[in-house]
């Protein structure tokens, strides 16, 4: 019942979140454009350098876009004084504003991408308003503006060559007092740093407070959108840092940060009023945020739908984007700006490919694929709009940030669903854990006793030789080290007997390994039963070799016991036809005794007894030999 209630609550929460996001998006997408398009421009087209406002003026709060044909004088900076004089008009042409000049302008003669020119527009019948303002857009790439013969502002410093031209990446609002019946606008524009020059966007004119009000609204909306993107980017980054359950929040946070940076550089926000950055640097940021943001978005979708979005496609997009980014980093804008159109074509094709992957994900009913497809499709349409608007194919507005916000909210829905699913899984696991814990406590008590018993048996097995059941090498070494330390404290002697079965290899070859094993067992049992004290221990040192540790035993006692052991083994009368010393199994014993005074006493005692055993074998076997060599570890 509890699980059913949890599922119901999760559905309600998911539905509520979706509705709240829908409401938010409706507000942004409906109010946002209204804020940006308030005081809608009643645009009158210029014809052959003249716009007739017909006395309507700007008192109704509207602004005018100065679109249409402007007079255009290529490779000339004509001053207002020269226009007031009668001059040769042979060089006069007309150019569409907004518009650009480059090598592709078919309607203009002898035009190249790099150069300078004079723009001129006459506004007749502007009305009676005196305090007006002009909003200048991005200019390619420097300009001076004159109104009625007076210089009222400049963006950068236009010149007649690249050394005298100082480009600037800025938008300006310039106010002036109109004291005449007509308004003459003259712009000196030069471009030696970009693939296209000219007036890239619309120039607006109107009452000063109206123009500034419109710009403030655009700035506020830009800050709001960028702030939302930045905060949600931090939110996704915190989700990744806290849980690290999915990699997609990290990619999404990086994407949000890139879009935020791009918004501050290319949007309406007045970053140029607070930070003095060069035109070249800002241009690189504009291009890099595009060339890096797109592959980041591709990687994000790959992390969400790895089955549909192929890795080869992602690697291809990253590789191409990296090449374009390197071009931006190592070349000036007049070179890398030509790459934009090619990357736009590439990103358009890759986006179509990506939408196909998302459609496949929806077809396969991947989790939240339909939600993400909607967001990606809207973002794709917004991207197309901005590309066409930047290339002046259409005249709309930059709506890519709105598409990003929509996609971000879609991603938030996906992540919320995943976390709700995880929450449900955790709650279910908690209930199962509580159920199993009660049973586990009882089983633990029962099995603890079994484990303790098994541990004792394992410990005993680990210290006993599997065949002979006497101490194994591990127990032998531990016991020898312990007793040497004890004898060192009590200043008592310790003896070691190293016993080796004579000609045991021949015994194995003659009687077989099974008989050999039986022989080892009998010898081990006899050695063990022949030792009298509890402190004496018999261990299998290796193969057919046994050791007997005799704590607190002097030389005489050790030799006596060694001879007794040799005799006892002979009395077993185990037949050995190939032995050269007896018709029965016999042993050779090396005896050593020391009074431990150093840390290496165990190694020394083994070395001495092993040397004595070697002497016993060398002297003919089936005998006891005592090591008489003096060392620093003996008293």
List the helices and strands and how they pair.
Blueprint lengths: L1 H36 L12 E3 L11 E2 L2 E7 L5 H5 L7 E6 L1 E3 L13 E10 L6 E6 L2 E2 L1 E6 L2 E6 L16 E6 L5 E9 L5 E3 L4 E4 H36 L4 H19 L12 H26 L6 H20 L2 H4 L2 H25 L5 H22 L9 H63 L10 H18 L3 E8 L2 H8 L1 H18 L6 E6 L2 E7 L3 H16 L16 E8 L6 H18 L5 E3 L9
Parallel strand pairs: 1-6, 18-19
Antiparallel strand pairs: 2-14, 3-4, 3-6, 5-13, 6-12, 7-11, 7-14, 8-13, 9-10, 9-12, 15-17, 15-18, 16-17
Keywords:
635 residues, disordered N terminus, 53% helix, five-stranded mixed β-sheet, 19 strands, alpha+beta, seven-stranded mixed β-sheet
Describe this structure in words.
With 635 residues, this protein is of the alpha+beta class. Helix content is 53%, strand content 17%. The chain has 15 helices and 19 strands. The strands form four sheets. Strands 1, 3, 4, 6, 9, 10 and 12 form a seven-stranded mixed β-sheet that branches. A hairpin with a 2-residue loop joins strand 9 and strand 10. The chain is rod-shaped. The two termini are 83 Å apart. The N terminus is likely disordered.
In total, the number of strands is: 19
Mean pLDDT equals 83
Morphology? rod-shaped
Q: Could you estimate the helical fraction of the residues in percent?
A: 40-55%
Largest pleated sheet:
7 strands, mixed
Strand-pairing-aware structural class:
alpha+beta
Global Rg: 48 Å
Q: DSSP strand (E) fraction?
A: 15-25%
Distance between the termini: 83 Å
Contiguous runs where pLDDT drops below 50 for at least 5 residues: 1-10, 31-42
The total count of helices amounts to: 15
């Amino acid at each position: 019942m509890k699980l059913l209630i949890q599922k119901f609550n999760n559905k309600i929460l998911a539905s509520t979140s979706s509705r709240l996001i829908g409401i938010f998006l409706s507000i942004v997408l409906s109010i946002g454009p209204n804020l940006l398009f308030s005081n809608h421009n009643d645009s009158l087209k210029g014809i052959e350098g003249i716009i007739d406002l017909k006395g309507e003026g700007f008192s109704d709060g509207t602004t005018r876009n100065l679109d249409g044909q402007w007079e255009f004088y290529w490779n000339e900076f004509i001053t207002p004084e020269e226009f007031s004089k009668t001059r040769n008009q042979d060089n006069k042409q007309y150019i569409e504003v907004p518009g650009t000049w480059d090598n592709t302008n078919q309607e203009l003669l002898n035009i190249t991408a790099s150069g300078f020119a004079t723009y001129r527009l006459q506004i007749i019948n502007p009305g009676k308003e005196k305090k007006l303002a002009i909003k200048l857009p991005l200019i390619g790439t420097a300009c001076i503006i004159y109104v009625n013969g007076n210089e009222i502002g400049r963006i950068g410093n236009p010149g007649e060559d690249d050394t005298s031209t100082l480009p600037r990446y800025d938008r300006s609002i310039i106010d002036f007092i109109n004291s005449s019946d007509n308004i003459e606008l003259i712009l000196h524009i030069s471009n030696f740093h970009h693939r296209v020059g000219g007036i890239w966007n619309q120039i607006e004119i109107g009452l000063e407070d109206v123009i500034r009000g419109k710009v403030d609204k655009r700035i506020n909306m830009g800050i709001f959108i960028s702030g939302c993107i930045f905060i949600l980017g931090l939110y996704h980054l915190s989700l990744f840092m806290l849980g690290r359950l999915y990699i997609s929040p990290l990619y999404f946070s990086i994407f949000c940060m890139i879009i935020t940076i791009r918004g501050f550089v290319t949007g309406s926000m007045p970053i140029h009023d607070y930070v003095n950055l060069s035109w070249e640097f800002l241009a690189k940021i504009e291009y890099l945020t595009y060339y890096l943001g797109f592959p980041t978005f591709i990687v994000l979708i790959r992390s969400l739908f790895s089955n549909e979005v192929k890795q080869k496609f992602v690697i291809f997009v990253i590789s191409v984007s990296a090449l374009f980014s390197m071009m931006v980093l190592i070349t000036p804008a007049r070179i890398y700006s030509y790459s934009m159109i090619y990357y736009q074509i590439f990103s358009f094709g890759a986006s179509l490919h990506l939408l196909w992957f998302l459609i496949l994900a929806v077809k396969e009913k991947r989790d939240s694929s339909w939600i993400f497809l909607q967001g990606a499709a809207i973002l794709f349409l917004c991207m197309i709009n901005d590309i066409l608007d930047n290339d002046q194919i259409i005249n709309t507005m930059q709506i890519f940030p709105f598409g990003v916000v929509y996609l971000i909210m879609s991603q938030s829905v996906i992540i919320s669903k995943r976390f709700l699913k995880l929450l449900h899984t955790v709650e279910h696991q908690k209930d199962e854990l509580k159920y199993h814990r009660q049973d586990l406590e009882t089983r633990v008590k029962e099995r603890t006793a079994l484990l303790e018993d098994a541990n004792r048996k394992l410990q005993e097995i680990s210290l006993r030789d599997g065949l002979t059941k006497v101490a194994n090498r591990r127990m032998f070494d531990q016991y020898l080290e312990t007793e040497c330390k004890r004898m060192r404290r009590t200043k008592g002697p310790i003896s070691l007997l190293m016993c080796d079965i004579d000609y045991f290899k021949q015994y194995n070859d003659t009687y077989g390994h099974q008989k050999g094993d039986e022989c080892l067992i009998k010898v081990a049992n006899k050695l063990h039963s022949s030792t009298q004290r509890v402190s004496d221990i018999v261990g299998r040192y290796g193969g057919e070799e046994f050791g007997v540790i005799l704590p607190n035993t002097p030389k005489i006692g050790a030799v006596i016991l060694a001879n007794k052991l040799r005799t006892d083994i002979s009395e077993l009368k185990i037949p050995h036809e190939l032995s050269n010393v007896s018709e029965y199994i016999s042993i050779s014993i090396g005896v050593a005794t020391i009074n431990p005074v150093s840390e290496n006493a165990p190694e020394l005692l083994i070395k001495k007894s092993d040397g004595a055993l070697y002497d016993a074998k060398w002297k003919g076997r089936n005998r006891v030999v005592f090591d008489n060599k003096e060392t620093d570890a003996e008293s």
